[in-house]
Amino acid sequence: MERSGDLAWEDVKVWRRAQRAALIARRETASETERKAWNERITAHLLDGFKVPAEAVIGYCWPFKGEFDARFAVRRWRSSGATAALPEVVAKKAPLVFRKWWPGAPMTPGVYDIPVPHETEIVVPDVAIVPMNAFDERGYRLGYGGGFFDRTLASLGGRIVAIGVSYEMLRVPTIYPQHHDIPMNFVVTEQAIYGAGGEGLEPLDSAECQRRFEMLLASRALPREPYRARQYSSPACYAAEFPEYFGGRNDADAVK
After folding, report:
1. pTM of this prediction exceeds 0.70
2. CATH number of this structure's domain 3-254
């Protein structure tokens, strides 16, 4: 039986289920005003600290249950030439597949009715913006329990830069990481950018973050391929995607 410290794996699973439920509930109790302010600060940290190459593919997640909304940062990176992709669950205990996304891409409801691109091109992300229900002092994350992101990161053999995003209120001392858990390379919250990678979280300014980001990209031979975004939208075309900011309807409803 796997063990983490003094806890057996079966005990860790029970602890994680309870923590996951409690922390998601805590996140959802935050007001829209609070989350909007946190999202703006996280977006600013991402854009200041990570100058994503125009040739890169960025994997991100449609926001769910009060998670950080990465679409504003993705919009900026796409405007500089990067390609965006959303994950699709294709099988239980299998890595995620990422499909190319752009504003106006055909969408269909996926697991939990989260929108996924409908039969668009499959791409491999160079950089992943990974939502976290909790994160610990070494950069390990607590997801939804399916293990999809860990299997995806493992399947890429380390050839990806994983940027975990969450709120400071969801920080915990440890998630009791197991051998299958993979730490984030960076953690970004409304408070700071942190270097992680399984070591203690280290606050970074934007210049040091960019330096380390570039070093990781170079050491992992990223980006893989020169995917260039071929479809662009004017700012007005994004209005329906961001109802809490622009008063439009939610695309998650539009695709059902």
Report:
1. yes
2. 3.40.50.10420
